[in-house]
Amino acid sequence: MERIAYIFHIRFIYFYRYKTVFLNRMNRLLATLFIFFICFINGKAYSQNVGLGLSGLYNVQTESFGAGARVTLFPDNVMSLTPQVSYYFPSNKITEWTIGAALDYKFLFRNKYYAYALVHGGYNRWSNYDESLMKDAELNNWNLEGGIGITTTHCLRPFAEYRYNLKFQETHFNVGLILVLGCRGGRGEDCPVYQD
Length: 196
Hints:
The chain has 196 residues and is an alpha+beta fold. It is built from 1 helix and 8 strands.
C-alpha cells in the first residue's frame, strides 16, 4: 500500500511540474503577444487599422456560455486578421479556453452593414476533458473553424458570428462589440472610411 501511495505521489508531482512549466510558457507567450499588439495599436490606431472587441459566446451542443476578446487588424479592408481568445466558464459542462486567429473575408456590402466569411485556427485547452465520454478527449487540442458573420460600418460595431468547429463538430455563436480605434464619428455614425 505504501508503494502505491509513493507512486501516486511521484506521478502527482510530475504532473504538477509539467502543468506549471506549460502554464509558464503559455503565460510568456500571451504576454509577448499582448506587448506586440499594444505596440502595434500605438502605431496604427490613428489610421483606423485596429479594432478592439468583447463578445459573449454560446456553444449549442454543450449548452455552454463563455466570453471572448479580440483585436481586429485592418477592420475596414476586404481581408482582416483577428487574433482572439475565448473562455468557457467552470459553471458549464465544458470548461475550456482557446487562443487563435481568424481570417475574415468581407463579401457582401449593403448600406451600413457587411457580411463576412471566416476561417479560424487556434489552440484549445479543455480543462475538464477527463469528465467527457468522448474516447479521444484530450487536454490540449488544435481547432479549425469556419463560419459567417455580420457587422456594421460604424465606429462602435456590433457583430454576430456563426461558427462550426470541424474537430469537435460543434456549432457556436459569438455576439459582441468592436470599437475601431482612431474613428472620429459618433457612436451611431459611419466610420469615415465608408463615407463618400
